[in-house]
Amino acid sequence: MLEMPAMASSLSQIKSSDSWGDEIDRKYEDRDQASTSTKVYGLIGNLTSQMPEVRGKAAWYLGKHAWYVDLLGESPRVVDLLIPALRDENSEVRSNAAYALGEIGDPRAVDPLIAALRDQNFEVRSNSARAIGKIGEAGAVDPLIVVLREDRDKTVRIEAIKALRDIGDLRAIDPLIEALKDEDPDIRMHSVEALDNINDNRAVEPLIQALNDDNNDVREIAAESLGNFKDTRAVDPLIKAFKDPYRPVRYKAAEALGKIGDPRAIDPLIAALREDWIARAAAEALGKIGDPRAIDALKELQKTGKSEYDRKAASDALKELEAVDTKSETNQIVPTAQNASSQQNATNLIQVEMREEAVRELDSAPSEQKVTNLIQKPATPTVSLTTLNVEVASDVYSEKDRQVLYCPRGNYMVV
């Protein structure tokens, strides 16, 4: 292990006109100053500096270099130093310590970070919520829900929503659905994203209602999210969204309908091909649904589309439709071939059975008597007679004995 450099002695020579933090910025961002490992050990030493700016910058840079801290095997030691820093008298140190703990990702930091969600400084609370989300500890879900519902700062609440999204625990569904009615559009928008990521069907109806939100971004993200759920309950509301005054909503609605793949969307999507801004999304959606009713309209867009992207989307969609047709024909041909093969196999089995039965009957009585019996047995009239050579009896019976016509179920006739 490398020796920890004596950073304090070098820092003590800094001119008073320079701040400690700025000097550390220069020292640790200049790749020519020292190797990364030397910088990391220097930063670890500076976590115990008496200067709050030095401690704060050290914590921040250790978070930035968390991958290298782990590579050096120093993560446990750094976490042991950062957890007490969450109670530092300086809010910047506390905030940066929370950030660094999230980047390192040690579960031991979760409980101290949960406690830091009650810090008086909003940046500390925000970075703590973010760090909990990065660590992904389900035990923090309930405290995060409290933050979502009760924190005074919008930034902190958004970080709590993001953390709930990343953890993905179903306990967050109802609080996030409640947040869709929040007066702040940013809270509503991030709640939609979180519900999309967790992807529980309880969110479908609330997201459908979000298509009527008075905020453009909320409606756009709701339309996109409904496509990811692929729930047919959203088809008619998404079709209705083609009348939305905000074009990105119409575009996302077209994309979503393509993901859901319900044929009810065919005619509205064909009509949407005439709108320049969403024609591309409509064409792609029609290609995914694969209904041949769209072929003529897609060919028209391929020829007359104003945008190169629209024309290409139409061309790609037509290829997808062609592939669907080919696959459909193949699916029809393959069973037919399989049936034919099965029928042939059955015929072969019957032939084998008939050969064996003919041999058994010919073997159990004198040849002339058995031939007479075979002639008297009626053939099944609905089945064509086929010449059968009983090769296995070739050394015993005459050629006439072996020239036998057979039908299924042992109805033989001699030629």
Describe the structure.
With 415 residues, this protein is mainly alpha-helical. Helices cover 66% and strands 3% of the residues. It has helices spanning 7-11, 20-29, 36-46, 52-64, 66-71, 75-85, 91-104, 110-116, 122-135, 141-150, 154-167, 173-179, 185-198, 204-210, 216-229, 235-240, 247-260, 266-272, 279-289, 295-304, 308-363, 367-376, 399-402; strands spanning 386-389, 403-407, 411-414. The chain has a three-stranded antiparallel sheet. A hairpin with a 3-residue loop joins strand 2 (403-407) and strand 3. Helix 19 packs parallel to helix 21 (308-363) and helix 20 packs antiparallel against helix 21. The longest helix has 56 residues, at 308-363.
Task: Offer a concise description of the structure.
Helix 10 (141-150) runs antiparallel to helix 11. The chain is built from 23 helices and three strands. 39% of the residues are buried.
Seen as an oligomer or otherwise, the chain set is: single chain
Which consecutive residue ranges, at least 5 long each, have pLDDT under 50? 1-18, 365-415
Spell the H/E element sequence. HHHHHHHHHHHHHHHHHHHHHHEHEE
Number of strands: 3
* Lateral arrangement of strands in the main beta sheet: 1-2-3
